[in-house]
Design brief:
- The protein has helices at about 15-20, 20-30, 35-60, 70-105, 120-140, 150-180, 185-210.
- The protein is an all-alpha fold and about 210 residues long.
């Protein structure tokens, strides 16, 4: 069944907010600290990378009138190369970013004994995965954003969103650690900052397609 663009609302905002509220549950019931919250956001970056690969594969922002059979073949080959390059480059980005988080925020915890993938983490990861999946289906597929962006342009999308968001989160976390003891209030403020940044990035990302 074909979905008309005009009938699709940005219903992906609500799942995004609900998924971002999951850390509050973790703080209240599982005693998450700053590291726990930031580590979850690092895992979300991996989820964003996964969906970006799907977007890059689907991206087809070219003018049909200018396409020849040779262009189609070249586009397929270049798309595969760009996707492989993104997987390597983004993987390295995730590795360095993860090491930084572990060194700075988990330095007082025995890494190999700390329950990073404890049961209470799964629900938060699942909610984030579903939230980004809904956004992918509603916006990128349903609103046909894939027709308005090239694979090379799509490759760059996660970096601008993630870097700005995580720099703000890390700065906020440093301030909490530098000026006082970690409290539920300070963690809630950190989560609220992330939600605000995420909403702003989400709206900005999809709004640009309405002007194309």
């Amino acid at each position: 069944m074909i979905i008309e663009n005009k009938e699709i609302k940005d219903i992906s905002i609500l799942p995004l907010i609900l998924a971002n509220l999951a850390p509050i549950f973790g703080v209240l019931f599982f005693r998450w600290d700053i590291f726990s919250v930031i580590f979850l956001y690092w895992q979300e970056s991996a989820i964003i990378g996964f969906y970006n690969i799907l977007k890059m594969y689907k991206a087809n922002g070219t003018k049909a009138a200018d396409i020849t059979i040779n262009d189609i073949i070249a586009n397929k080959l270049s798309k595969v190369f760009i996707i492989v390059f993104f997987m390597f480059h983004y993987g390295m980005f995730m590795l360095v970013h993860g090491m930084f988080i572990f060194v700075i925020f988990a330095r007082q915890k025995p890494i190999f004994s700390y329950k990073f993938f404890m049961d209470n983490y799964y629900f938060a990861i699942l909610l984030l995965f579903i939230s980004h999946g809904i956004s992918y289906y509603v916006n990128f597929i349903g609103k046909e954003e894939y027709k308005k962006i090239s694979v090379s342009e799509q490759m760059q999308k996660p970096y601008s969103r993630i870097i700005a968001m995580h720099l703000t989160i890390l700065l906020s976390a440093f301030l909490v650690m530098a000026f006082g003891k970690q409290t539920i209030i300070s963690l809630f403020i950190l989560i609220a900052i992330k939600i605000a940044m995420d909403l702003r990035a989400h709206i900005k990302e999809h709004k640009q397609f309405t002007n194309i």
